[in-house]
Structures are given as C-alpha cells and as structure tokens.
From TrEMBL:
Organism: Nostoc minutum NIES-26
Protein name: Circadian input-output histidine kinase CikA
Residue positions where 4-aspartylphosphate is found in the record: 1330
Coiled-coil segments on the chain, per record: 689-751
Lineage: Bacteria, Bacillati, Cyanobacteriota, Cyanophyceae, Nostocales
Domain Histidine kinase: 1027-1245
Start and end residues of each CheB-type methylesterase domain: 29-208
SMART domains in UniProt: HATPase_c, HisKA, MeTrc, PAS, REC
Length: 1405
C-alpha cells in the first residue's frame, strides 16, 4: 500500500500532543549541509564555499575521501576560500551554524544530538562508505532539516545517503556532469532518482542561500497548513483530491504530519512560502502532482534490515509453516508495502537457506505488493547497485546474486519465487490462505481508523497456523483477541481463532474519478461519528425499512437486508442463494417478470397485490425491484424490496365455497375485487409470456449466431486438420532427424564416458593435490592427495567449499578463489598446513572448451623438502653471519684483486664507513686511502704469491674518521668457495690496550710514590700517637700519684696544698688536650661551625693577652701591644678568634726564653685587618716552615724535646682563620732568631650573621675569671635534681652545690628522676642530667619531662652535663628541650654559675 520505509524506528499511534512536541523540537534545529566528495572534490569544495554567504544559518560538514596515512591540509586550504570558521573535526565536537567542519583522515564520521563523532574507518567489500555513513546519520539526526550534496568523485559513495536524506524529508543536490572533474559519484546519485537539484558548485551555493532565506528554514517554524483559501476551501484537502484524481490514492487516511512535511519540502524546492501558491503550482503543472506523489511514497529500505528479525523468522516461524508440507501445498507469503523488493527478496533468501539446511523442498509463493508502481517495476527487475547490497554477506552475494554491469541482480531462482503487484491496502482485496504476512513500518504512516480496518483483513488472509510480522514500532493494538504474541522485540504474532464472526468492510475504492470535489478529512473522531451514525441507521432500517435482498445479474443473493423469512426460504436439496429458488412459490413468477423488466428498462419496477398463502391466511405483498450500479463497478445490481400491503385474508377456496352456498349474500364489491385480481394475474401472465417469447427470440438469435460460429469453427477445424497432417509429416521428418541426433548423442556419450574415465584415472594416478571447483565454489573433482588435505570424501562432490574444514593455514582461501574467478589472474603463494607442511598453492581459472570461465582449479605442489633445505641453508648462513657480526674484531674478506667482498658489522662501526662505500672497492681505496699502508700492501701481495700468512702485525696510523689508532692485523688465505679464492683479514683495535698499558705503568709509579707518602704519614701518625700517649699519661701520673698520697698518708698543709695544685694543673692540661683533639676532629669531619656576629678585633686581642698575662709574668716575658685606634667592625666568631690569638700567644710564651719579649700589633689595610704576633724565641728551622701548620707535625718530635704538646694548635689556628676567609703564615730568620705569625682577615666577607643557642663553653686557659662568682646572689633555697649514673660525679656535684647553700637530690636513672619529679610536684627548681645513661638516656628523660604539666615540673629549667661535647650533640641537646649544653669536665665555679643562671640567681651588673 505504501512505499514508506524508515530505516530508523518510528513511533506508532503517537498522540497529537507528542507529535506536536516532536515537531517543535525539530523546528528549533538549524539545517546542516553534508557535502561528500572524492577525487576532484577539493576544487568543488573551494568553488562552492567561495560563493556561499557567511550568514545562512546553516552548518556545513565536508566529508572527503582522504589518504589514511597522511595529515590533511584540507581545512587549511578551504579556510582561504571563505570567511566562515573552518575546523578539522575532533571527536565530540558540537556543530554550530555558519561554521565549516572537515573530516580528519582515516575516520568515519557520524552526527548524533548535534555532536560529531569519529570512529576508525572500516571498509565494506573494499570500499569506504564515509559519505554514506555521515549522510545516513544526518538524515536520522535532522530529518527535514538535512541537506545532502554529492560532488566530484570516483565511486558510488553518497548514493545511499541521499536516499536516506530524501526519505527523511531533506533536500538533495548533485554536481552536474560537465562541471565535475570525476563524475561517477554525482552521476550515480542522480541515477538513483533521489536528487532534487543537479547544478554546478556555484549554482548549488546560490540555491543553498535561497533555501536559507525560506521562512520554513530561516524562521525555524512551520507555517500552518490549514490556512484557508480566499474562497473558503481547505487547501490541504484540495491537494489530496488532486493526488486522488491523478493517482487513485486517497491520502486522507494517512498521518497528516508526514504529508505536511513532504508538502513543505516541495514548497522549499520551488521557493513558495504560502500553501495556496503551491496549490496553484500543482494545478498549473500536472507533472508536479506526480512528483509530489513519488515524494510522499519515497522508498527507503535495504536488504536484511534488522538481521536479528530474520533470524527470528528462521527460528520461530519457518519451522512451523514448513512442517508437513506436500508438493500440492505451497508456502504462501504476502509482503505488503514491499517498496523496491529488498525485503521480499530477503525473506525469500532466508526461507531458501532454512529449507536447504532442513533438507526439504516445498513450493514457495511470495506475493509482494506496494502502491508505488515505480518501486514495483524496480523490484521485478531485481537489479541493485553495489551500495544497495552493502549489507549482504559475500556468501549470499555469491549464492543468490549475479553480478551485472550496473551492480548485482537477484538470481533467477529467487526472482521466480516472488510475484510483484501494485496494491492499495486500503481499497484492494487481500490475499488469502497465507502462511505469513509481513507489514513492517507501514501502519505507522496510516491513521488509527485504517489500522483498525487492516488488522482484521490480515487475520482473514492468514491460515489457522499463519503468522503476522509488523515493524518494531507497531503493534496489533486492541486486536489481541485475533493475534497472540510470538516475539515481543520483532513484533511477530500468531493468528488466533476469532470468537465471533469478523465484519470485514473495506473502504470505498479510490480509483480515479472525473471530478475532484473536496471531501472532508476523516479524523479518528470523525470516523467514530460515522460508526455511530451507521449503527443508528441499522436500527432504523431494521425497524422501519422494508425487508429486501441485493442480487446480481445472475439473481444470486449478495446481501440480505431486514427480516426476509416471510418472503424467502431455503429450497430443498443443494444449498443455493439464487433468488428464484429461495423465493416462495407464489412470488417466483412475479419476481422473474419484475427483475426482467428492471434489467431491460434499467428503471425501478413495482409489483403490487401479490398474494402469499400461508396455512389458512392470505397476505397481500408489494415487490419493488430497483437496479443500481456502484461507482467503478463493472456490472449492475438489483435491490429487491418486500412489503406487506394489507391484513391477511381467508384462503380463495373458502371464498369460492361461500359463493356457491350463499350467492345471494355475496358482496358485489368482493366480486369486483376478484375480477380485478384475475385481470391482474392475466396481465402478469401475458407479460411473463411476452418476456418468455422475447427471451426465446433472443435465444434463437443467439443460437443462429452460435450455429454460424460453429460452422466457421468447423471450417477452421478442417483447415487445422490439414495443417496437422502437414505437421505430422514434418514431425516424422523431425523424428528421423532426432533419431540421427540420438545416435550422435549416444556416440558422444560414449566418448564423454571414456574421457571421464580417463580423467578419473588420471586424477587418481597424479601424486599432486588438485581440487576443481564450480563457479559457485561447489566441489567437482579432486585427487586422493587433495582429499587428505581438504578432508574430502566422495559424497562431498557438489557441496560448497565453505562447508569443508580444510587443513591449510589460509583463512581467506575462498576469497582468493573468487578473486581468481572474477579477475582471471593466476594466484600463487606458499602456504602451510596445520602440521607445518609446506605447499606451493596455485589457483587458476577453470576454462571451458568455448573459453568461458566456470570455476577454478586449486593445485598444491609439495615444496616441503625444498623449503626445509632452504631454511637449513638460511639458518646456517644466519648462524655464521651472527657469529661474524658478534665478533669484536673487524673482519674483511678480499678477493684476489684485493677488493672487498664483504665485512662484518664491527668493521663498519669501528672505521665509520658504510657497505656501499666499502664493498667491491680496493682495500687501499677505502676511506680516502687510509689503508694504503706499504707494509700491509707488501704482506697481502705476499699472501697471494706465496700462500703465506701474517700475524700480530701492529700498525699505528692516523685514520680519517677515528683519528690516531694502533691496529693489530692478521691475514690468511681462506678455503675456496665456489672455486673463488679469498683472503681473510682480521683487524683488532689495540689502541685502548696500549693506552691501558701506559696508564698501568704510570699508575704503578704513582702507587709507589703514594706508598712512600703513606709510609711517611704512617710514621708521623705513630709519632703523634706516641706523643698523645705521652702527653696524656704525664697528667694522669701526677693525678694518680698525688691522689694516692692524699688517700693513704697524712700530709701536712703545705704538702696537701701542693698536691691539690698539682692535681688541678694536671686536670687542666688534660682538659686542654681533649679540647684540642675535639677541635681537630671537627676540622677533619667538616663540622666546625662559627657563631658569626659583628665584632671589633681590639677587645678580642686584649682579652686573649689578659688570659696569658699570668703565664708570661711567670717567665718574665714582656708582652707589648700596638693596635690602631680605628673602630672598624667585621663579621666573625669572637670566641674562636680569641682562641686563635690565645694559641699564638701560648706558643710564643712556650718557645720564648725567660726575659724575652712578645709584640702584638693590629693594623688595617684597605679592606682587611692584619694581626702580627712576634717573639724573640728560639725561631723555626727553614726546612720545617712548609710543614708548620700541618696536623701532628712538630719541629722537635724527638723524645728528648723540651716542650710538651700534640702539634695541633697551629693546624686549628689555620682552619679557624680560613673559616673567617683569612690567611695565616709564619716567618723566621732561622733557629734562635724568633718568629713572626701574620693573620690577615677581610673586613667584608660572605659570612652571614647568625644567632646560635649560646652555651657556656670554656675557653681553655690556665686561670678562670672570678667575675662569674661575683655575679651570683646565693643558692640558698634552690632545689636541684641531679641525674647521673656515675657515683663520683653525683657526689662531686652534690658537694659543690651544697657548699653554696643549694638543696640537692641525686638519682641514678631517668625513670627514678621522673618518679621523683612526679612525687614532688613543684619541688625542684633546676634539673641537671647526663646524656649517656643505661636503659633510658637524657634525651628520653627530657622528652618525658616536657610532656608533664607545669604543675608537675614540665617546665623546669634543665642543663645537660655530658662528655658528648661536639657541635652535633649540642644542637640535639637544645632541640630536645634542654636550656644549656655543658661539656664535661665542669669546674665547680662554672657548675655553680650554671645552676644560679638557670635558677635566676644572677646579679645584674
């Protein structure tokens, strides 16, 4: 009925509100123009864009066939031709109006919800349908706002896309043939019949600009289609009646939304803005009516659309309808709305596949109908373009299609199954006794009322076991009592037995009529009113209208109206609807006469006063016979009405008896009535006799005419008989010829049998696998070896090759065979089977005697042994080459002409040459003659002449690429290969080896020198350790000796005082030694840090002089100082600088004899300060001056030296001065001449002033300033907690502090100290703790203390008294929570000062 096939799933039975919303949403979308091109497309794109305005409100998407392996410059080139933004598409990019988008290479692009999407490009049968893919998605996305343009190109891409766009209501363009550089693409699109405009690119641009200004496009709103004409008629109805008049199709029953969209599309094509203008255009141009008709019925379909639906048919429908079939009961299928036949053929192919697989072969009848005659004609031919069969698998193409010049044609066996005919579902009768009806995506375009009429018709047309298949968006609606659901997804229904008799009433036929009077559209509500009116008419007719029947010319009753039982009754015997047989006997004569008169005169005929006798009653009856002829009916019909005219009368016999018995009493009026009745019966009889006479005369005339025809036929039969006699003679002659031909055929048959036997024996004897295939790839013949490789048996002859699982590792064997059949080119390649056996595969076309191609011959030649040998040779060669290439030495093979045959990789890499620069060239010419070495030339010539060899020839040469190298050469003659003598030259680069040997000799010399220096240093270290031992033991001896005397003997006061003084001096000396050792340790480890601040040098020097003044006075040495009065400041560590001056002064006092003199000067020169310490002492030997500031070095290192010390002081001095950025040096005129030490310090340094936590670290001196004790107020009431694991230290500290009035508690461990603190909250003022203690050290103790609350002593002032005296330990102690870090030993006065400081008992001065 309709060709409308939508590739996307449509909504059926949508409510008007939803349709309106969908239209409104679509109208808000701006148009998108898709342009597709291939070869020559760049020029077409550029010309089109250059003539386009920039404000069309459209978006332009360009799809060009591009090289997949190269970057596209299309967007860059096209951006020069238009002012619109040109962008290369990225995945997920939204489309905007007045923009140009270009597809990137190697992608397929689609559009969905206004967003462009990219996927990697795929090929379908070797073709990339990128234009079709985008056009199809554009049609689904934009519908009537989609515009497709096909430009220059060399294939059929885009044709299917423009069909989809036009099917969705869009507009299509194609470039004209003359303007296209390559015209295949636009010509193919034009040939499809779906292109609206065929123009040049410039004209296409102009037309697009005009379309963009159309109100339907520019305002993005649809004009109202129901706007009335000035005359008051409905324009849309007039258009429908024009279509009905021209094509016989009433579109009033179609859904109005689709029709309006199609009409608007045609208005855009002709630039018409008002519906009235388009109506006038239709009236003035009859061709446009046909164009609009085709546009409304545009076919959009494809093969095997929704493949799963066809699989559902195979699994759920075909097994049922094919069951228990006989040759007399064909499978009958009706495909309604078949369009151009793709669906009908798809069903036929699927059914054939199923029947073949099932092994049954019943007859098949497929009726395919559509209202579009153009589509039906194409379906009958069955020829489709390659793009239209893109969804058909290669196997089906090969089996069911035949390739023709313009594409593919459905094979004749399939075409013969399908009968195509034009049919209007709304008006024409259906097919019957059907097994399957498919009506996919047809009902969605029809109104609800028509759908309700069609479904009972489908039910009527199906067998009891029949099936109905609808589109995925369609259902049976309220007719669930007629159909049961079989497949919900693909809408397959099975027929149910109707509980009541169906009233199937087809609408009036819509064949062409003479006038085009408008009829109101039948909406769903209007149709319900008509049904109501019809029901009311039935009630009125049943109660008040006379009973009657409708009969045809043969007096067969077609329809009963009202209660006809009083006038008609079934006749005995065979059932018949003949009116005269069913009419009661009293009416038959009058009925025959009346119908005869009505038929002859073609006017209504009435018969009155007829009597019907029933038992003892007589009824008066009136008969009316009305002839009529329905519109478009071929014959006339008669409406026969029966009506009683008076009450029932007694029977006529009784009236006659009464007349005889009581004549006198008879009423004269009754006699008159009887006379009138008799006259009427007589007149009727006369009329009947007259009609009989007329019929008899007509019959006689017919008989005479028939007699004449019989006589004529007799003459013709006599003539025919003579012809038959002649034909008999000809047949006899032909029979003799056939006998001769039969003999010839028998002889040929014998020859053919002989040839077949010979061929069979030949194939059996050939030890080569050979397989012969037909054009459909079915097996014809094969050799025994081919049977093993292809797993064949004798019964496989005639089977498709695709059914066979062969042993070759060649998945595309069938494709290659088809390619040979199609191209006629021989194919050869090496293949392996699953066991790894090698064959040479050769595929040749199978040629018949008349040089026609009818299949292919597949030959396999056994090359396994050859292949294995070649692999072994190749493996051996690769093995040898791998060994040669991995050898570190350079290898060169020369021929007798001393030309290089080959060389290994090491040679090329070592000498930086390439094989092209080396091979086939003289060895002496390589690298600009770098191997032209006379000695090498002589040795090589000697090998050629005397078959000698040379080894370990060392050549030192300056090579061009790699510089000066030393090479070791070995050469000899190689065993002959192919009778060609060769020389092998081995070159080893020993430059590195020579260098290593030289370096080894140098290192050996250095090692000997270093060993001597180490031995010297070791001796110095031994001397230093001896001195350290001596210097440490001397004070210990004094300490231990005097301590024992004090412990064991009662010494007098003088001796006791002497002992104490000696012990004190020894302890001080030992402390100084330890301090020096710590300083030198810091120097060695690089951990010496300065407390830098802004200072003046003069006070520091004076303080140092004050410290050593007592020692100088002891030796009567005079110290003189001379310092400039300038108060210049510098950055430095005052304590360390004082240490430096004190060290120099102590050394000067130590080495200056009694009564000597020491001079200290301070001078400033530009940016530095100079300090000099000069003495009149014993001086320094000139040989020792260079080593004066080294560690562990002393001028007098002998055991007989008179001055004690470790030899570290001057080393520490140099390090401290250098830390300040200065220098120190010494001068002496020699022994006995004194010495002068000069210190130079920069006034501006890079040192940064820092503030480090201050710790009272004693400057080692002989005397301690007593000013510390003068500042102490008192320790009375100060509570001190001492923690130390050494008993002597605890007792010493306790004794010292109690002597000054302090209250001391001493504990041995951290846990005990913590318990004491917690047991006496707020009971202590100062905490003194050792660091190194067993189990828990001082760090753990202070950490736990600081975690206590202030009430429990968490903030008690604390000092760490420890023998760990390094800078690192000091930093760790302060960070742990101690306020002070005091290095042991601690003198009593300093201990008292520390406690007083922590307790806040220091007097402010």
């Amino acid at each position: 009925m309709t060709s409308r096939r939508s590739s996307k799933k449509s909504q059926s039975n949508s409510t008007p509100a939803k349709t309106s919303d969908a239209e409104q949403e679509e109208n808000q979308l701006f148009p998108i123009v898709g342009m597709g091109a291939s070869a020559g497309g760049l020029e077409a794109f550029a010309e089109l864009l250059s003539h386009l305005p920039t404000d069309t409100g459209m978006a332009f998407v360009l799809v060009q066939h591009l090289s997949p392996n190269q970057k596209s410059l299309l967007s860059e080139i096209l951006s020069r031709t238009t002012q619109m933004p040109v962008t290369e598409v990225e995945n997920g990019m939204s489309v905007e109006p007045n923009h140009v988008y270009v597809i990137p290479p190697n992608t397929t692009m689609t559009i969905s919800q206004g967003v462009l999407k990219l996927i990697p490009r795929e090929k379908v049968f070797g073709l990339s349908k990128t234009v079709d893919a985008f056009f199809i998605s554009l049609a689904q996305e934009r519908g009537s706002k989609a515009i497709g343009v096909v430009l220059s190109g060399g294939d059929a891409d885009g044709t299917r896309g423009v069909e989809e766009i036009k099917g969705a209501g869009g507009i299509t363009f194609a470039q004209s043939e003359k303007s296209a550089k390559v015209n295949s693409m636009p010509n193919t699109a034009v040939a499809s019949g779906h292109v609206d405009f065929i123009l040049t690119p410039e004209a296409i641009a102009e037309e697009l600009a005009k379309i963009s200004r159309h109100p339907y496009v520019s305002h993005r709103s649809v004009s109202k289609l129901t706007e009335p004409l000035p005359e008051g008629e409905d324009v849309l109805l007039v258009i429908f009646n024009l279509l009905r008049t021209a094509k016989g199709v009433d579109f009033n029953h179609y859904k109005q939304t689709t029709l309006k969209r199609r009409i608007l599309r045609r208005m855009i094509l002709y630039k018409l803005e008002r519906l009235e203008d388009y109506l006038r255009y239709l009236q003035d141009n009859p061709a446009e009516v046909s164009a609009l008709y085709q546009d409304v019925l545009i076919a959009v379909t494809s093969f095997f659309r929704d493949p799963e639906a066809f699989e559902a048919l195979k699994s759920k429908v075909f097994p049922v309808i094919a069951k228990d079939r006989t040759p007399e009961s064909p499978i009958r299928i009706w495909v309604s709305g078949c369009s151009t036949g793709e669906e009908a053929y798809s069903i036929a192919i699927c059914l054939l596949e199923y029947l073949t697989d099932s092994g049954i072969n019943p007859p098949i009848q497929i009726f395919a109908t559509d209202i579009n005659e153009v589509a039906i004609e194409k379906a009958r031919i069955g020829i489709y373009k390659p793009s239209e069969v893109a969804d058909v698998s290669p196997e089906r193409l090969q089996r069911f299609f035949i390739q023709v010049e313009s594409g593919y044609q459905i094979g004749k066996p399939v075409r013969e199954l399908c009968v195509f005919a034009r049919q209007n579902l709304i008006a024409d009768p259906p097919f019957s006794k059907l097994d399957l009806i498919t009506c996919r995506n047809v009902l969605i375009y029809l109104g609800a009322a028509v759908q309700k009429k069609l479904l009972p018709i489908f039910h009527y047309g199906l067998k009891l076991t029949g099936f109905l298949m609808l589109g995925t968006s369609e259902t049976v609606g309220e007719f669930s009592d007629l159909f049961s659901l079989v497949d919900r997804k693909y809408k397959i229904y099975a027929r149910k037995v109707a509980s009541t008799q169906l009233g199937i009433a087809l609408p009036m036929s819509n064949h062409p009529v003479e006038t085009a009077n408008p009829q109101p559209p039948v909406s769903e509500d209007d149709w319900n009113d008509l049904e109501m009116q019809k029901a009311a008419d039935k009630i009125v007719l049943s109660k008040y209208a006379p009973a009657g029947v409708i009969v045809n010319n043969n007096l067969v009753i077609l329809q009963f109206r009202g209660q006809t039982a009083p006038y008609l009754q079934p006749s005995p015997g065979r059932a018949s609807f003949n009116l005269l047989k069913m009419a009661k006997e009293d009416l038959r004569l009058e009925l025959r006469t009346a119908i005869h008169q009505a038929k002859k005169r073609e006017i209504p005929v009435r018969k009155e006063g007829l009597q019907i006798r029933e038992n003892d009653r007589v009824r008066q009856v009136k008969i009316d016979v009305i002839p009529f002829k329905p519109i478009a009916a071929a014959e006339s019909y008669f409406l026969v009405l029966f009506e009683d005219t008076s009450p029932s009368l007694p029977p006529a016999s009784e009236i006659a008896g009464d007349r005889n018995l009581s004549a006198r009493r008879r009423n004269p009026t009754a006699d008159q009535q009887e006379i009138i009745q008799l006259k009427q019966e007589l007149a009727t009889t006369k009329e009947y006799l007259q009609s009989i006479i007329e019929e008899q005369q007509a019959t006689n005339q017919d008989l005479r005419a028939a007699n004449e025809e019989i006589l004529s036929s007799n003459e013709e039969l006599q003539s025919t008989n003579e012809e038959l006699e002649t034909a008999k003679e000809e047949i006899q002659a032909t029979n003799e010829e056939l006998n001769t031909i039969n003999d010839e055929l028998q002889r040929r048959n014998l020859e053919t049998t002989q040839v077949s036997n010979d061929l069979q024996n030949l194939l059996s004897s050939i030890n080569i696998p050979i397989l012969m295939l037909g054009g459909d790839l079915r097996i014809r013949r094969f050799t025994p070896l081919a049977a093993l490789i292809f797993n064949l048996i004798s019964t496989d002859v005639g089977r498709p090759l695709s059914d066979i699982n062969h042993n070759l590792n060649l998945p595309d064997l069938e494709q290659q065979i088809l390619e040979v059949i199609n191209t006629l080119n021989l194919k050869t390649q090496e293949v392996r089977d699953q066991d790894g056996y090698w064959y040479d595969l050769r595929i040749r076309p199978y040629r018949t005697i008349d040089n026609k191609i009818d299949g292919a011959v597949v030959v396999l030649v056994d090359i396994n042994a050859l292949k294995r040998s070649a692999e072994q040779v190749r493996a051996s060669r690769d093995y040898a080459e791998a060994i040669v290439d991995t050898v570190r030495e350079s290898l060169v093979v020369l021929n007798l002409d001393l030309r290089v045959i080959t060389a290994n990789q090491s040679f090329y890499e070592t000498f930086q040459v390439t094989p092209t620069e080396t091979e086939q060239r003289l060895i002496f010419e390589i690298g600009n003659g770098q191997w032209n070495i006379p000695q090498l030339r002589s040795l090589l010539e000697d090998i050629l002449q005397n078959n000698a060899q040379f080894q370990d020839l060392e050549v030192e040469h300056n090579f061009e690429q790699i510089g000066q190298k030393t090479m070791r050469l070995n050469g000899r003659k190689m065993p002959q290969t192919d009778d060609i003598p060769m020389i092998l030259l081995v070159i080893e680069d020993i430059t590195r080896r020579k260098q290593l040997e030289a370096e080894r000799t140098q290192l050996l010399t250095q090692e000997q020198s270093a060993r001597a220096a180490a031995e010297t240093a070791n001796r110095a270290k031994d001397e230093f350790l001896s001195i350290v031992s001596h210097e440490l033991r001397n004070p210990l001896n004094s300490l231990l000796g005097w301590a024992n005397l004090l412990r064991k003997q009662q010494l007098d006061e003088a001796r006791t005082k002497q002992a104490i003084e000696s012990i004190h001096r020894s302890a001080k000396a030992q402390a100084q030694l330890i301090a020096d050792l710590l300083d030198i340790s810091r120097v060695s480890s690089g951990r010496f840090r300065l407390n830098v601040q802004s200072i003046e040098l003069a006070p520091i020097i004076e303080a140092a002089i004050k410290v050593v003044s007592i020692s100088a006075e002891t030796k009567n040495i005079q110290i003189e100082s001379r310092m400039e009065p300038a108060t210049k400041r510098m950055l430095g560590d005052p304590i360390r600088l004082q240490q430096v001056i004190w060290n120099l002064l102590s050394n000067a006092i130590k080495f200056t004899p009694v009564g000597g003199r020491i001079e200290v000067t301070l001078e400033y020169f530009d940016l530095q300060a100079q300090i000099q310490v000069s003495d009149t002492g014993q001086g320094i030997n000139a040989d020792f001056l260079p080593y004066l500031f080294e560690r562990f070095r002393q001028a007098d290192g002998a055991r007989t030296r008179s001055n004690p010390g470790l030899g570290l002081g001057l080393s520490i001095v140099r390090h401290l001065v250098e830390l300040h950025g200065g220098t120190v040096d010494a001068q002496s005129q020699g022994e006995g001449q004194g010495a002068t030490f000069t210190i130079r310090l920069p006034l501006q340094t890079n040192l940064q002033e820092i503030s480090l936590p201050s710790t009272e670290e004693a400057v080692v001196s002989i005397e301690e300033p007593e000013v510390l004790l003068d500042t102490i107020l008192s320790l009375e009431g100060v509570r001190v907690l001492i923690v130390d694991d050494e008993t002597d230290i605890r007792e010493l500290f306790t004794t010292v502090l109690e002597a000054y009035g302090g209250e001391v508690t001493a504990v041995t461990s951290a846990s005990e100290a913590l318990s004491t603190l917690m047991a006496n909250p707020g009971g202590y003022d100062v905490l003194l703790s050792d660091i190194g203690m067993p189990e828990e050290d001082g760090f753990m103790l202070i950490g736990q203390v600081r975690m206590l609350s202030p009430e429990l002593g968490g903030r008690i002032p604390a000092a760490a008294l420890t023998a760990y005296a390094g800078d690192v330990e000091q930093t760790e102690v302060l960070a742990a929570g101690f306020q002070m870090h005091i290095a042991k030993p601690v003198e009593p006065d300093r201990l008292v000062f520390i406690v007083a400081s922590l307790a806040g008992r220091i007097r402010n001065t």
